[in-house]
Design brief:
Helix content of chain B: 40-55%
Largest sheet of chain A: 12 strands, mixed
Structural class of chain A: alpha/beta
Strand content of chain A: 15-25%
Low-confidence stretches of chain B: none
Oligomer: heterotrimer
Number of helices of chain A: 13
CATH class of chain B: Mainly Alpha
Strand content of chain B: under 5%
Number of strands of chain A: 16
Largest sheet of chain B: none
Helix content of chain A: 25-40%
Order of helices and strands of chain B: HHHH
Shape of chain B: globular
Mean pLDDT of chain A: 93
Chains: A alpha/beta (446), B mainly alpha (88), C alpha/beta (421)
CATH superfamily of chain B: ACP-like
Radius of gyration of chain A: 21 Å
CATH architecture of chain B: Orthogonal Bundle
Order of helices and strands of chain A: HEEHEEHHEHHHEHEHEHEHEHEHEEEEE
Distance between the termini of chain B: 7 Å
Number of domains of chain B: 1
Shape of chain A: globular
Low-confidence stretches of chain A: 1-30
CATH topology of chain B: Non-ribosomal Peptide Synthetase Peptidyl Carrier Protein, Chain A
């Protein structure tokens, strides 16, 4: 009996009868087995909930606002993609409030919405058949700031019993697992803005290795004064004062990015398991995923002599993700770009896209221009947006970005949504210091 | 020194709600003196946090080894009020 | 075709000695590395002891700019990565960088630097608002610490998949398990993987004080870490790191590498019960063990040694003992079990990798390290915990496990090559 079979025999729920993938044995697992997205929960600065968010994106409504959580007068940047209409007590049991950072509250709510959207009842699914894989870029930062403050202004005895886990990067995975009784393989990955796609990739791997359902994605928030100066220290934050034009990825006037909060949580499933439980809708398939790393920057001393001239790894991540999906560049209908909003980085990404697809050969978009960069939440939210583009046959625009330098050679979707049949989308993300991740999603039917 | 403050069930409820969040499992208007904390929605962490508050507010030390033995509200009230009585 | 994954290099910094040789000497002598905390004045804290490592970045060969930008935990990881690569004999320059990846685990990441910067920015905790004039250019990377994995990748020239796995106290097992999966599936041929944590800093000490998870046995530090002992009353916080070179088996054989062991099985499950609490029945850890053994195609009786999580908290040691019995049945009673945390403490996310190192060396030397400070029995912990002194014992197959906040329960099976073939 396979281990999974043994788990089933010892099982604690009504297990669906599912054609098993060849066990979690020591061999490589089928690289092409489809993994479906069956539920999405979104918490974004311009919309709570999937449809509110999508409506705002198509209408070009921005979630970038002057920060209201604290007095920003002493800081050189004051705009953020801030979620203003989330009252955690409306969405979560009050007992979870003292022990959770705002990022975890958003993650738990988004997970609830994703699970409800998928029509899954976790209480009737075998516990080991459900895993949780999330990404977290910053941890429960505001929560931990409060506890640092208590420690140093009052004393050790003032530190909360919840600090030991409300802060750490695994908190969202753990809390989602507990809230929903999910005991399958679970993990938390950290790779700044690339980490959210890594979580989706690892969720895909986890399903292919034999866990029928994985709740995955990422959420971040760090909008307390300490979190804010931490953002500023990256040197990439826009100091603009006009919310509409603060974050202009790929625009000649790009001047840095605006940090945002929130993200997306997705339910991904083995198609046979989804069918067996009677799932009626699928948003699409996570068909390919890859991650690569850039060469060491100049001046960093490794064990190897410097290897100048090696290209960054973003294009290679895209190529490998497409290869895993069994697709070629011409199959891609839209690219959701990482869209750093920093000129050098924009240029590097434009170059990777242009060289892979040919100049102006594929629509490129960056709806995150409306909400800022969400770190671990950014990639999963872009994937959610790509799946909606597939569903509705429309590519959202890139906020207020308009003036794309000609030598970028990309067809950036600007000035409003573009109707187009979208069967396949490539989503890109880069994490600070060299992380590159790519996910390919394509249409699927249950 | 006389410690005249007596802790009531409502006081404890208030402290627990502050430390562990308001509980949906705490039945209103019922005598829950002997209900296990777990059934009332409070786990060991909430009790540890409450113990620290009780030390501050009532001046009653709750030793580490005693906390696991506090299984229901009556245990806590006996400890706090009994201790207060002894102090008096 | 099945791709098999072997470990060919070890780099380790743990309390009680640097490098695999000193580490093993500490473990087999049964010496404990716990002392009264020296990094700051611990007197206001409930738990005032820890297993500190004597780590000198200058002696370790780190340059001033490296020491300046890297958190202490990152320094440990980079030093260990260099040592692991040297130990493996791998010629990095001869590898395709696209086929080399990194898996780095850490639970609290840049905690030490966060606290230092917090004090500078807040006027030592006086202000909620921060003083931008005191802002370090590295602050972002202490908040969003994936730079730690990047530093390791730069050290070894990796341009393949680079991941930071942060699953609390199972990070050290899960980062290596993650690396194994990547090699098996063909995403990489070589992974430099392991974990680091340097949590001996006031905020971390205070947060474990609050939940009384660490021991208050301050009067006798060397006796403070007492896994499985009837008088245990919490774990001893520690720091450390261990990094490994993992390779696809055939290529390791082709280059005639020294192979410590094959990673034949790995699994993780969650208890979905409580962020810090454990149910006494050990069900989910037992399931992780079952799956890891199943993946190894090994019968339970193949297990020669169990390298336990053995943190020394009341609930952990009971939980874990139940998990061993539940998964191994009668064989649990016949197998030596030990906790090296009795000697090197609990370095949170790092410890799973430190324990993998101990497991590899147990295989290498056919010696089981002891559980120090184990004098009094506990009726709920009734297995053979190898008290006080190391034991010569044929060790071909090791089961090593971890348990972490968030409910993570992980298990890994390591086997010597003669046992597998």
């Amino acid at each position: 009996m396979s281990a999974v079979g043994a788990a089933r025999a010892a099982g604690t729920g009504h297990a669906p009868t599912v054609a098993r993938v060849p066990g979690p044995g020591a061999g490589p697992y089928p690289g092409t087995r489809p993994v479906y997205v069956t539920g999405i929960g979104v918490a974004a600065p311009n919309g709570l909930g999937l449809e509110h968010y999508w409506e705002a994106v198509l209408a070009g409504r921005s979630g970038v606002v002057p920060i209201t959580r604290f007095d920003t007068s002493r800081y050189p940047a004051r705009l953020a993609g801030q979620i203003e209409d989330f009252d955690a007590s409306e969405h979560l049991p009050s007992r979870l409030l003292p022990q959770t950072d705002v990022s975890t509250r958003l993650a738990l709510a988004a997970a609830d919405w994703a699970i409800a959207d998928a029509g899954v009842d976790p209480s009737t699914t075998a516990d080991y058949d459900m895993g949780v894989v999330t990404s977290n870029g910053c941890g429960g930062f505001e929560f931990t700031h409060r506890e640092f403050k208590k420690l140093w202004s009052v004393g050790p005895q003032a530190v909360s019993v919840y600090e030991s886990f409300a802060w750490f990067y695994a908190v969202n995975t753990g809390q989602i697992s507990i809230r929903n009784g999910m005991r399958g393989p679970s993990s938390a990955l950290v790779a700044e803005q690339a980490g959210g796609l890594d979580a989706l990739g690892h969720a895909q791997r986890t399903v292919r290795r034999g866990t029928p359902l994985v709740v995955t994605g990422g959420v971040d928030s760090a909008f307390d004064p300490w979190g804010w100066v931490s953002h500023l220290s990256s040197g990439r934050i826009s100091h603009a004062t006009d919310p509409e034009h603060a974050y202009l990825p790929f625009d000649a006037a790009a001047r840095g990015y605006v940090p945002g909060e929130g993200g997306a949580i997705l339910v991904v499933e083995d198609p046979a398991a989804a069918r067996a439980r009677g799932a009626s809708r699928v948003y699409g398939e996570i068909a390919g995923y890859a991650s690569t790393f850039d060469p060491a920057p100049e001046g960093v001393r490794g064990e190897l002599p410097a290897r100048p001239g090696r290209p960054p790894g973003l294009r290679r991540a895209a190529e490998q993700a497409l290869a895993q999906a069994g697709l070629a560049p011409q199959d891609v209908d839209v690219v959701f770009a990482d869209a750093a909003g920093v000129r050098d980085l924009d240029r590097a990404e434009a170059t990777a896209i242009r060289e892979l697809f040919g100049a102006h050969r594929v629509p490129v978009t960056a709806p995150k221009a409306l909400i800022g960069r969400l770190y671990a939440g950014g990639g999963p939210l872009d994937v959610a947006t790509a799946l909606l583009a597939i569903r509705d046959g429309v590519i959202p625009a890139s906020g207020a970005s308009a003036d794309v330098p000609a030598d970028y050679g990309i067809d950036l979707v600007t000035k409003g949504p573009r109707e187009a049949r979208v069967a396949c989308a490539l989503v890109l993300a880069r994490g600070r210091w060299g992380f590159n991740s790519a996910v390919v999603v394509r249409e699927a039917t249950i | 020194m006389t410690n005249a403050i007596t802790m009531t069930l409502d006081d404890l409820h208030r402290i627990l709600a502050a430390c562990g969040g308001a509980s949906e499992d705490w039945p209103a208007g019922k005598d829950v003196h002997d209900h296990p904390f777990e059934e009332l929605g409070y786990d060991s962490l909430a009790l540890m946090e409450a113990a620290a508050h009780i030390e501050n507010e009532y001046g009653v030390q709750v030793p580490d080894e005693v906390i696991p033995q506090l299984t229901c509200p009556r245990d806590v009230l006996d400890l706090v009020n009994g201790s207060a009585a002894r102090t008096a | 075709m099945t791709r098999r994954v072997v470990i060919t290099g070890i780099g380790i910094r743990a309390p009680g000695g640097k490098g695999a040789k000193e580490f093993w000497s500490t473990l087999t002598s049964g010496r404990t590395a716990t002392r009264r905390i020296t990094f700051f004045d611990p007197s206001p804290y409930r738990s005032q002891v820890a297993a500190e490592a004597d780590f000198d970045p200058v002696i370790e060969g780190l340059t001033a700019p490296e020491t300046d930008r890297m958190d202490r935990a990152t320094q440990f990881a980079v030093v260990c990565a260099r040592e692991a690569v040297r130990d493996s004999g791998l010629e990095l320059g001869g590898l395709d960088p696209y086929r080399v990846g990194v898996g780095l685990g850490s639970a609290v990441a840049a905690a030490t630097s966060l606290e230092r910067e917090y004090l500078a920015l807040s006027g030592r905790g006086r202000d909620w608002e921060m003083d931008p004039a005191r802002l370090s250019p590295h602050m972002f990377d202490y908040m969003a610490p994936s730079v730690m994995a990047a530093e390791v990748a730069w050290t070894v020239g990796a341009e393949g998949p680079v991941a930071m796995v942060s699953n609390g106290c199972t990070s050290g097992l899960d980062s290596v398990g993650h690396a194994v999966q990547l090699i098996r599936e063909g995403s990489a041929d070589v992974m430099v993987a392991g974990a680091c944590d340097t949590p001996i800093t006031p905020i971390v000490v205070a947060c474990f004080d609050a939940i009384k998870a660490t021991t208050p046995r301050n009067d006798a530090p060397e006796q403070a870490s007492r896994p499985f002992d009837g008088s245990r009353n919490g774990f001893v916080l520690a720091e450390g790191a261990a990094m490994f070179v993992l390779e696809e088996y055939d290529s390791a054989r082709r280059r005639d590498a020294h192979i410590y062991a094959e990673v034949t099985g790995y699994a993780t499950r969650s208890n979905a019960f409580h962020m810090t609490g454990l149910k006494p029945d050990g069900r989910e850890m037992a399931e992780a063990i079952r799956v890891a053994l199943d993946e190894s195609r090994a019968d339970v009786t193949a297990v020669d040694y169990i390298n336990a999580h053995g943190s020394g908290t009341k609930q952990n040691d009971r939980h874990e003992t139940a998990a061993f019995k539940r998964s191994l049945g009668q064989h649990a009673y016949e197998t030596p079990v030990s906790s090296i945390k009795s000697m090197v403490g609990h370095s949170l996310g790092a410890i799973g990798s430190v324990e993998i190192a101990a497991s590899l060396l147990a295989i290498e030397h056919n010696v089981v390290p002891p559980t120090a400070n184990l004098h009094t029995g506990d009726p709920e912990c009734d297995l053979d915990y190898v008290p006080l002194t190391a034991r010569e014992h044929r060790v071909n197959t090791v089961l090593t496990v971890g348990s972490g906040f968030g409910g993570f329960q992980s298990a890994m099976v390591l086997r010597s090559l003669q046992e597998v073939s």
